[in-house]
Amino acid sequence: MSLEILWFVLIAVLWAGFFFLEGFDFGVGILQFFLGKTINERGTYIRSIGPHWDGNEVWLITAGGAMFAAFPPWYASLFSALYLPFVILLLALIVRGVCFEFRHRAKLKKHRNMCDIALMLSSFMCAILTPVAMANLVIGIPIDATGNFTGTLFDLLKPNALFIGVLGLFLFLSDGVLFLALKIEGDLQERACKAAKFLIVASVILYAIMTVVILENSTIYLAPFALVCLSAIFVFTGSFKLAFIFLAFCIGGSVAALFYEMFPNVLVAVNPENSLTVWNSSSSEYTLKVISITTAIFMPIVLAYQIWSYYVFRGRINPKNANVEV
């Protein structure tokens, strides 16, 4: 396997990791406002992702950095074309971080309510924008022969891309509610379990529509579709752990299928002749060797730390004993 293909695969893995981990993160951020009836209940839901949300965002930073190092024209063209959506995404991520860090410091209930609303809205924006951005990689972006963006924002908001954004939102919500079903105890868990049934059914229906109607190369998405169907079956049989695992593979498999559909392109252009490929947009062989060695050294450390953090905070949260002030 050439280094160009290796880095294409690694970037796909990084994006898959981001969508899975940050996916349930976004889902919980939205659901806390609707499932939690009081400030303390919302605080308990938020506390479930408190130790993980900032570590999950590392996958986004790493994916962007890998694109910049391995495929500079891809990075330049994509971030230029999606400049406004990515600015909105960045602002939403900043607002989420502020909400997590300052919510428990607020002394007045109205200020905590404001943090909860802001967390819900910013998580919603992230959950919609990221799938829409990924969908445009396959659907096609108007760029010229030099990789410059020649369209407008409305060229990125195609009906198919928006539909995939809605599908991504419901997958994230399903992922988040299953995470809460595994993480919380008591009445708050019961609410999550009830919501999981509706959300997973909606996800199955939307995924079926996407597979049959929206995408041309739909056969490669049949495996992820089967996984979300299995997840739905386990939800209705009460096996929420298995449902969470299969939905995680569905989300990761969907990203993998998207990258497989793109290959050998890294950025599909409306005019196929202007598409960027792994061959015409990669860095020099020397650069790829250097970053490969660096990644081989530091990536295991990052993975080990994140696995360790999930292991340390693996216990369930009991709302009666939870210190929601922290």
- The total strand number stands at 2
| First-residue to last-residue Cα separation | 49 Å
Helix content: over 70%
Order of helices and strands: HHHHHHHHHHHEEH
* Main sheet attributes: strand count, strand direction, barrel closure: 2 strands, antiparallel
Q: What are the segments in which pLDDT stays under 50 over at least 5 consecutive residues?
A: none
Quaternary status: single chain
- Structure class: mainly alpha
Structure description:
The protein is an all-alpha fold and 326 residues long. β1 (265-267) and β2 form a beta hairpin. Helices cover 75% and strands 2% of the residues. It contains twelve helices and two strands; from the N terminus they run αααααααααααββα. The protein starts with a helix and ends in a 14-residue tail after the last helix. α6 packs across α8 and α8 runs antiparallel to α11. Strands 1-2 form a two-stranded antiparallel sheet.
Features:
single chain, 2% strand, 75% helix, two-stranded antiparallel ribbon, mainly alpha, 12 helices, 326 residues
Compact overview of the structure:
This protein is mainly alpha-helical and 326 residues long.
Helix/strand layout:
Blueprint: H1 3-35, H2 39-49, H3 53-70, H4 72-81, H5 83-102, H6 109-139, H7 153-156, H8 159-183, H9 187-214, H10 222-236, H11 240-262, E1 265-267, E2 276-277, H12 285-312
Antiparallel strand pairs: 1-2
